[in-house]
Amino acid sequence: EYSYDFSPDFAELRAVARVEFANKAMPAAATKPEGRVNRKFLPYAQQVTTIVSLPVPLDDKAGNVSAWSADGAKLARAALTTAFGELEQLLPRTLALTADDVAAMAAKTNPKGNVGGFAGRTQASPGTGESLLWGPGFIWYRDRP
To answer: Mapped to the 3 state alphabet, what secondary structure does the chain carry?
Structure first.
């Protein structure tokens, strides 16, 4: 499932991919057929969030909306391209994670970070203006499109 939206102050555009796999058979612990798709019975459930910030966000919501929508929403389109491109890079990485990988990324020895209103454990800062957290689920942030 893919979705995208803006932060409450419209300073950041956010794209989210949620990947969930359910067993075909009902889990033994489930008491109703719909329990098969209950999140606690899913054998796999991860989320990847990518966030792209305005180059110069304002304290004014209307100003941020105007910036995203200017010139036929050129900036918003570029940010969506960037955000979905990064989802494309992170989804295969997410699908390959083992329980040990998740435990290592969530370890308290990794410093805490906060990007785009999301908190998690810092995994990498691959380049200037980019951050990667585990929150759980990857949270990638670029502070400009």
So the answer is: CEEEEECCCCCEEEEEEEEEECCCCCCCCCCCHHHHHCHHHCCEEEEEEEEEECCCCCCCHHHHHHHHHHHHHHHHHHHHHHHHHHHHHHHHHHHCCCHHHHHHHCCCCCCEEEECCEEEEEEECCCCCEEEEECCCEEEEECCC
